[in-house]
Structure formats: C-alpha cells, structure tokens
Design brief:
Layout: E1 2-5, E2 10-20, E3 25-33, E4 39-48, E5 52-62, E6 68-76
Antiparallel strand pairs: 1-2, 1-5, 2-3, 3-4, 5-6
Length: about 80
C-alpha cells in the first residue's frame, strides 16, 4: 500500500500492514521516500493517519489463459 503524506513523503508498505485504531496509525514494513523520491528509510514504518493525504493500493488478479487484471483503490482524506 502507498501512503502519500501531506508533506510530500511517500511510504510504500509491503504486503502485511495493519491499522491501529487506538493510536490512529497505519504500520508495517516498507520503504519511505522524501518529496524528491529519494529513499530515506527502510524497515518498520508507523504512519499517523491524520498525516496522510491519500492512500493507494494496487493488486494483481491472474485469470486463466495468462490474462492479467489490475485493480487500484484510492482513498482520499481531507
């Protein structure tokens, strides 16, 4: 999942991430990039949800016959 933060930072979390409703955060292993898309951190990232401008998630669904479908979901916060 991608989390585009309000300050221009992007965090890409790997397959396993979780929402902590008590702390109001999203956390998981991934990579963080600054606004110039230079990698700044790799490891466990804990993101305050109120600092996120938009979440994005993309997954692949393989069908028989080698055909591939993509699905992307975007959730915006204001």
């Amino acid at each position: 999942m991608k989390a585009h933060l309000k300050n221009g930072t992007v965090c890409i979390l790997k397959d396993s991430w979780a929402i902590d409703t008590t702390l109001n955060t999203v956390g998981g292993n991934g990579t963080q990039y600054d606004y110039n898309r230079k990698q700044t951190f790799q490891g466990f990232i804990n993101i305050p949800i109120d600092s996120v401008a938009i979440f994005g998630n993309e997954f692949k669904n393989w069908k028989s016959g080698g055909r591939q479908n993509y699905c992307s979901k975007l959730i915006g916060r204001t």
